[in-house]
């Protein structure tokens, strides 16, 4: 198979060719590796490859699952695979897991062939993939621009057609944000839908969800069928649907009442291009028979980001302490200033602060439940602006120095109460203005590639549904995919 043929298929399409014996898994792996070698020097989307291990997996006979023989890339965070190190996006931490993450077991059960790990920011904390350890991942649509984060390497690899899908996870927008930046499809499932253990059990108190970034909606649905379901020790459990998600795609979707909003849920400014993306999507949905009404959710934007920071910084502090215990103080001290600063925040807050912040999460969840009683879904921008040039979102040298010098001092409450914390974090937090709500509430949410700016850079449209209602989200995405196809639209690398 040549690349000129390979890129024309999604994952299910490639698997069908394997089943029909028109191509072998080894041939698909070879094409994917050739594509990786051709474009990764430009993109820096992949930071570790293991072709020989992938070839051995094929020789040992693959499970005959729905994606048997399809090449796959794993994110180097949470999606741990035995025999391969997990770096977490750091310079010095290398962890060799004694067993697979449960979600990786389910990926493997479909017959996928992992052969590489994707680039990411350190610990997935940044909304742009520009780590000190591995350098920036480049947007396939415009070199020198962000792929988003934290699953930026995965999104770039899919957009560049190295693979038709790649694993991702989302704690503040990290599936939807990079999918929007790179012009591909990204679904964040409901809390409790897909496994997160055994190593992270309750990722960020349930804010994190894992699911692949894909080219096609049907691949996302088929993968959700394979991934969903209970796992041992899970805190959040959702039952498997009575009808598989792949079958639900075949059911025509009825006209819906959809609310849309351009009001940020974290203090931010929405660019003209982000507004244009929403306006175009609203027009498209109306043409498909849906009723669209502008209506803003009633959410305290200032309080939501503060509550999120209190909880997440606590998890970061625990992770840094774990690294210090296992790898030593020198390795812990080598972490990026932003990571150390977040850990300082976490050590500054009390357990009472965390309990109060979780009450704030509940208030957002209740507000969205009220909203989704009136509307079937909520439509917003995914991004507040076009993907940023490299160097805009991460801390500059002076800010990094300040973070490095102050990370040992318990300044969290002072920074929060003075307003300095938001000023220091605004370039990251403001860009999560529409994605963060889905993580705080656990609601399913997707970014659909419906708009490209005149610059050539994509901006996604985010649509959020009710808990446990991924089936209807996917059916709407399928309707949009048919009405305004994006599969043939690819960056020319």
Automatic annotation (TrEMBL):
Pfam family, one: Amidase
Amidase domain: residues covered: 27-392
Highest taxon of source: Bacteria
Gene3D superfamilies: Amidase signature (AS) domain
UniProt record similarity statement: Belongs to the amidase family.
Protein name: Amidase
Species for this entry: Simiduia curdlanivorans
């Amino acid at each position: 198979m040549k690349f000129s043929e390979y890129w024309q298929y999604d994952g299910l399409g490639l698997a069908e060719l394997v089943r029909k014996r028109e191509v072998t898994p080894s041939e698909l792996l070879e094409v994917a590796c050739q594509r990786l070698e051709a474009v990764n020097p430009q993109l820096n989307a992949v930071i570790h490859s293991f072709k020989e291990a992938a070839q051995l997996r094929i020789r040992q006979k693959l499970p005959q699952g729905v994606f048997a023989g399809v090449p796959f890339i794993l994110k180097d965070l949470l999606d741990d695979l035995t025999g391969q190190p997990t770096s977490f996006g750091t310079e010095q931490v290398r962890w060799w897991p004694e067993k697979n993450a449960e979600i990786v077991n389910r990926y493997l059960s479909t017959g996928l062939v992992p052969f590489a790990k994707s680039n990411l920011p350190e610990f997935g904390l940044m909304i742009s993939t520009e780590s000190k350890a591995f350098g920036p991942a480049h947007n396939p649509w415009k070199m020198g621009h962000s792929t988003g984060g934290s699953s930026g390497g995965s999104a770039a690899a899919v957009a560049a057609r190295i693979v038709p899908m790649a694993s991702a996870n989302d704690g503040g927008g990290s599936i939807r944000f990079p999918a929007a930046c790179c012009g591909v499809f990204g679904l964040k499932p409901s809390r409790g839908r897909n496994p997160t253990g055994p190593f992270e059990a309750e990722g960020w108190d349930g804010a994190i969800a894992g699911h692949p970034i894909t080219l096609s909606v049907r691949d996302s649905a088929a993968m959700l069928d394979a991934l969903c379901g209970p796992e041992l020790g899970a805190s959040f459990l959702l039952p498997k649907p009575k009808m598989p998600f792949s079958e639900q795609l075949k059911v025509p979707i009825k006209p819906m009442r959809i609310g849309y909003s351009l009001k940020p849920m974290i203090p931010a400014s929405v660019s003209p291009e982000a507004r244009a993306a929403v306006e175009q999507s609203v027009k498209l949905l109306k043409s498909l028979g849906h009723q669209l009404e502008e209506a803003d959710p009633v959410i305290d934007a200032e309080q939501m980001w503060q509550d999120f920071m209190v909880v997440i910084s606590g998890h970061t502090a625990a992770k840094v302490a774990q690294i210090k215990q296992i790898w030593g103080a020198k390795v812990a001290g080598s972490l990026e200033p932003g990571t150390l600063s977040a850990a300082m925040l976490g050590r500054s807050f009390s357990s009472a602060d965390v309990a109060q912040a979780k009450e704030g999460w509940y208030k957002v969840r209740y507000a969205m439940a009220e909203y989704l009683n009136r509307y079937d879904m909520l439509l917003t921008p995914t991004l507040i602006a076009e993907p940023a040039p490299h160097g805009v979102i991460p801390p500059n040298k002076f800010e990094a120095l300040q973070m490095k010098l102050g990370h040992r001092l318990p300044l969290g409450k002072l920074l929060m109460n003075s307003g300095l914390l938001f000023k220091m974090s605004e370039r990251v937090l403001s860009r999560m203005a529409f994605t963060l709500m889905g993580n705080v509430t656990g609601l399913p949410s997707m970014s659909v590639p419906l708009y490209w700016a005149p610059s050539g850079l994509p901006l996604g449209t985010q649509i959020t549904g009710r808990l446990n209602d991924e089936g209807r989200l996917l059916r709407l995405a399928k309707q949009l995919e048919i009405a305004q196809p994006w599969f043939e639209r690819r960056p020319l690398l």
